[in-house]
Design a protein that fits this description.
- The structure is a single chain.
- The protein is mainly beta.
- The protein is about 10% helix and about 55% strand.
- The protein contains twelve helices and 58 strands.
- A hairpin with a 3-residue loop joins strand 9 and strand 10.
- The chain is globular and about 115 Å long.
Amino acid sequence: MRCAAAALATAAANLAAQDADVFGTLRTQVVDADWEAPLSGASVTVVELERVMKSGEDGTVLFNELPFGEYNLLVSAAGFERQLMRGVVINPGTVQQVVVRLAPVYTDMDELVVRDFDVASAGDTVLIELKMESTASFDAVSADTISRAGASDAASALKLVSGATVQDGKYAVIRGLPDRYVNSQLNGVRLPSADADKRAVQLDQFPAAMIESIRVTKTFMPDQQGDATGGAVDIRLKRIPDKFIAKASVSASHNDQVTGEKMLAARGPGLSYWGDDRGDRARPFRVGAVEQPENSNLSPYVWNRRMTEEDRQRYLDSWQMSASQTAAFNDNYRIRYRETEPGTSWNLTLGEVFEPIDDVRFGFLGNFSYKHDYAGYNDGVLNRYIVRKPDEDDEDKFTIERRNDTGPATYRVREGQESILWGGALTTGFESPWLNIGLTYLRSQATDETVTMIEDRSQLEDNKNMWRQQSVHYSERTTETTLLEVEHPWFFLPEEMDVSLGRDWLIFLPPVTDWSISRNMASQYEPDRALFTESYNNGYWKPPTDNLPPLERKWRDIEENGRQYAVNQKIPFRIYSGDEGYLKGGYFEDQVRRSYQQDTFEYREGNVGKALEGDPDDMWSDEFITGYPVLGPPGELEQGWYIAAGDDDIDYNGQQDIRAWYWMADVPLCSFLAVQGGIRVESTEINARMKPSKERYEGNFAVWSLKQNEETGSKYLDGVAVENDEELNAHSPDLERNDRLPALGMRITPLKNLNLRLNWSETVARPTFKELMPVRFKESAAADTYLGNPDLEMSEIENYDLRLEYMPSAGQLLSVSYFYKELLNPIDLRAFSPGGGVEGERFLMPYNYPEGEISGWEFEARQDIGQLWSYAKGLTLGFNSTLMESEVVRPADEFQQVQEFGAERTRRMAGQPEYILGTYAIYDIEDWGTSLGLFFNRRGDVLAVGDSVDNGDEYTPCIYEEPLEQLDFTFSQRFLKRWTVGFKIKNLLDPKVKRVYRMEDGNEALRSSYRRGREYSISLACEW
């Protein structure tokens, strides 16, 4: 750090002397390879710097003041093949001269370029050009833009892609379609998920330093997986470097709402440096080992006069066993306030390349990153309201109000979170004209400890009542992937095979075979999730009402293992116009095995410590008496709150097998028209085997299932007693089906650099394990209960897409798109009232709605202002927006219930925003080594939870997330040749994150709100 301080102190003095020492000049001449004639108007791109210039009449381009180093040049011209010049060295104070000879379109240089140049590693300028040439519709963002935007991980980087947002800070949402309709990939291989709630991949696990580019394909083609309805997100890791690289960086961050403030935290051991539990939170035993103690409410008379010595010893042994089991649990459920520290992060990158002979290269690239951060707020608000049917003489038709005068309704919310994210990737590869091999290993871990407290003090002054709940939630998410990719060009065949008897109508080029094998593992370790609930009344803290225990502790372990196999055969060809196409076919197999364990422990009431006398600011959890302070016969026995087993925990082992084969073709019919299409045949099998976590059927063990009232036709949930494995597994899912998924696309190029794309396809959407398993789970006493639905069916989607795009020059893009999707049996959450449940309780269950539809418009523009105005050299502006509409048709019985409260037959699809808006400005001053960026995103209104009718006459309106904005600023300055200092501000506007209850007539009430705070960070990096 002393070296860094000295470097910062002398930076200003050295900047003036840099120009002569570290900059050079590149003179490039572009000529016709056949005629050696200069080519004017050719585009020359310095890939690493994204500097683009056009050649003059003499075919020459002059790049002044290039920092010394090694560069790649991408050269293209109309009517000629694109060419990549690798390893152009710029030395300080010299002029490097390069002659580039472009071959006419009838040569086969394209195949050589594809093998020599990795699309994933291209800058945004090159990615835009590749978008124009591709028949498929895709958007992408490069590592360079990810770095400028200050994105810390793949989730935040995805927001830079047109039409993409992130749900819950982790999950990809494309064109408003949530995780069910989007699959996430690593170098083209689907990633595993250990999420308890969905099979979506948590993108915050992948630090930005590991990413070379993120590519989002928005239209389905048969070589993609069948559930890529909204899109496929492909995270491309950095490959073999072009030269030796060693880079290190460190950074520190300050959140003006968190850093240095008193925030909630657990009293437990806290997070270790690497975010591993070390066994501190491990459960002492499985829930089935808990023994119920004998009745402790015995009188001394019964003990002394009516019980034998054997009976008394049995009772004492039972109480001793219960005392030992209760004492085995720690007191990590207690909370405290602590002053938070600044966030820190560091990153290391090392790579090397070897080129023993021409066209042969091998090497490695490794990266490791670490981040420790804090988040939270102390001023959150949460409200629980309903709507009742009005009286006949009431002028106001409906009003949003609290459920009753004494129950919780308005809460103050405080939350503190500590997070650790680290990950490493190692890629090795061998590239040659006859064989390409890549081996990738990736491991990442994300650990979070979140402490939340909610309080309702609305009735404290009038009725001396108060309600409080606190929770401690610790989670470790680990992902590990090993991927082997092999490509076999058929180099032993002639470079051209004319099958048109010498007329050049159809010429086949050497085929390419590629295959991949991957092993994926993901786990989510969620130990000791403690939930403490208490109510205050007239000077006493007591357990909550409705027979809920004051303390519940839950352990969940989820592990998912997967293997994927894929083989593809591509046969390229060229037609009479010089345009190239291909035939392609392949086979894919995905095997996923998931194990789920859940143990719930409750604390039951003893004969001491049943309540705490005190005032509203006391914490009963601090004085909560557990175990047996005194063991002995009645009159001497003191039994506090003791551990007991939950009744309905279920373990399961699930499996999902997907097999598919496909064939497709990309055929250029002429120079301005290309057609792409084919069919994918995909089979799906999803099933599971369940058992009670206690491994026995006793007590109140039951499985909840959906029933229908014969008189009213309404549906409700009720428990079904289960006594053996056969009865239990009758409620397990068994989904099996085959799908034929056709796709057809067309690219029309009526004018140079102008494309019109038309796409049609059929896709599917699968339910997740959580949605299929009848496992009941309640996040908190204030939350709804979630229950899976084993009767779910897969959804079928028909997709239409139209896109017009224009690239006036290199690095510039204008596009407009329209998309429309028809959904059959879409899955959405539906609320049900439980039979015999407590007042206000409701269940949320995934349910197949009859049908739905989604439509929208997308707009995108990118412009290098320096090409229009020389004084603005280095300034790039970008803009994208997506406007969307969606709806699902309600089932008849649901509509019958909600229409009395003004609801319509259709409602918006959950998770679908009204619009997404993104814009940015990047200004690079190359002479100074300075870069500045301003990035703005706004997400429109989103339906979070649908409406429902509870207990017959209590209507809970739809809950919407209001529009949310984010403005980020980044700055970086290079100095002393190898050093870079950076400064970033995230969430400059710091708006409130708000949810509201909203009825069809526009009547609204606040559901929740909080702020995330502004984050300021500074970084220092050095590259050798």
